[in-house]
Amino acid sequence: MTEKEVLRYLSLVDRKLTIYVNSGTNWKPEYEEELANIDKELAQLRALIDDEHKQTEETSLKNASRQQEEFIEKLQEQSAAFRQQLEETLKESDAQFEAMMKKYLERNHRLKFIQDEEKRGSGR
Question: How buried is residue 16: exposed, middle or buried, by Cβ count under 10 Å (0-12/13-18/19+)?
Answer without folding.
Answer: middle
